[in-house]
Amino acid sequence: MENQYRKTNTTVSLLNYHFVFCPRYRRKIFLRNDVENRFKELVEEICHKQDIAILAMECDKDHAHLFLHALPTISPSDMMAKIKGVTSKTLREEFPHLQHLPSLWTRSYFVSTAGEVSKETIKRYVEQQKTRG
Q1: Of 45, 70, 82, 125, which is most buried by a Cβ count within 10 Å?
Q2: Is 51 helix (H, G, I), strand (E, B) or coil?
Q3: Residue 53: which domain range?
Q4: Beta-bridge mates of residue 2
Q5: HSE (CB half, 13 Å, CA atoms) of 85?
Q6: Given phi > 0 = left and psi -120 to 50 = alpha, else beta, which region is 37?
Q7: Residues 6+ apart with CB under 8 A from 99
Q8: Whether the predicted model's global pTM rises above the 0.90 cut
Q9: Tens of pLDDT, residues 76-98
């Protein structure tokens, strides 16, 4: 799926997003393999339902990285809201040591886009449009 254009009736797109986000107070929730594995299962379920492809997913002790390939119909903020909301609720329900937390994740996250061509290539392409015959 990586770097493949996705087509719908009205769009052709290549939208890859790199997300990084942390639990509240940088709690080291992923030191436990069962929490990490369940988190990954939940993210896979959510992404499947939202038609989002997971290009890569990994967790460090106190943060998660997701590299996702999405259609333009869902915004990065909507993706994060869905993933953080569902995983927070479910993990706190299923793991007693997380139940006391009012929410699992901070409100913030990092997101960056990553495509197939560099910004210099796109800039050059756009600038050359007037000179094309």
Answers
A1: 70
A2: coil
A3: 6-127
A4: none
A5: 7
A6: alpha
A7: 92, 93
A8: no
A9: 999 999 999 999 999 999 999 99
Task: Please report which residue ranges of the chain form alpha helices under DSSP H.
Answer: 33-50, 76-94, 119-127
Which CATH number fits the domain that encloses residue 94? Answer: 3.30.70.1290
Q: How many domains does the chain have?
A: 1
7, pLDDT greater than 80: yes
Lowest mean pLDDT among 6-10, 98-102, 107-111, 126-130: 126-130
Residue 84: inside a domain, yes or no? yes
**Cβ contact 28:62 at 8 Å:** yes
Asked, for residue 1, whether it belongs to a domain, the answer is no
Q: What is the pLDDT of residues 99-120, one digit of tens each?
A: 998 999 999 999 999 877 676 7
Query: Could you say which DSSP state residue 14 is in?
Result: -
Distance CA 56, CA 69 (A): 10
Domain presence at residue 35: yes
